[in-house]
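#structure-requests
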Amino acid sequence: MSIVGQGKPGTGRNTVAELLHEASVGANAPLIRIDCSLSSEAHFRTGLLGENGLGGNWVTSARGGTLLLKEIHELPVPLQKELVSVLRNTAHGFRLMCTTTVDLEKRVEEGRFHDELFYRVASLPITRPPVRER
């Protein structure tokens, strides 16, 4: 199961992901945080996909724990497709959590987010409302 935290900046999406990791069975395992908005395509390919496309050092490091892909909507569509391939073809052994500030379902409809990746990462959506609405 994958979790996606949605909400405006400052709503605590990353904090929720960290708390979920800490409350999980794999709490003693690593929490690997990757900011997709800051990672270059080459850096992302190497860290997540690896040389053979079956998983890089981020995947290896996250085994037994959690891989948190922050701002997943910033990932270019070609890399989204490669990420789907990694998730489909490997027994990755980690919990995948993602955060975003946009409506991923709308992005899928617009063709700006890979539909299979959406269904893989959004199996448990958690929407964080702004503080003014809480």
